[in-house]
Amino acid sequence: MKKLIVLFIFGLTSLFSASSLYKDSTDIVLDGKPTMLIFTTQTCPYCDVFKKDLHENKELNEMAKKMNIHIIPRDQYKEYTMWGETTNLKTLEMNFAIKATPNVIIFDKTGRKIWQVPGYADPKIMIPYLKFVEALDAGTMQITDWRKYLQDAGIIK
Length: 157
Fold this sequence. Notes:
By secondary structure, this protein is α/β, with parallel strands linked by helices. It contains six helices and seven strands.
């Protein structure tokens, strides 16, 4: 019986810590942290894999905790506020040319779009993307360094 209670409590703790990774808000704000928008659908298996990676890959999880992450469900029409401007799901989809899911958009702390990753990206690819954004925000890299950075990381040739 004690084992069941411990497992139940552990399960609840995992559930609450996992859900706290995402902002449960339609208000996308600039607050000095990078922002990640994840466009998803309920029928997207790779969306689930990506969200699982964010929780289970230790390095990716640590980096994600330093960001504002918003899940944008494409199968649920919602009104949003982004950087103080009123918008909605359809406008976001048009502005970012969202055709498929998952589609991940990463902004630096100033709201400048740095990466857009259409489709699933393995943590081996996503981690360097997030490290580049961290370096931009820290001032140790410039946006023009992206090609050399990705070459050095082995992402592109």
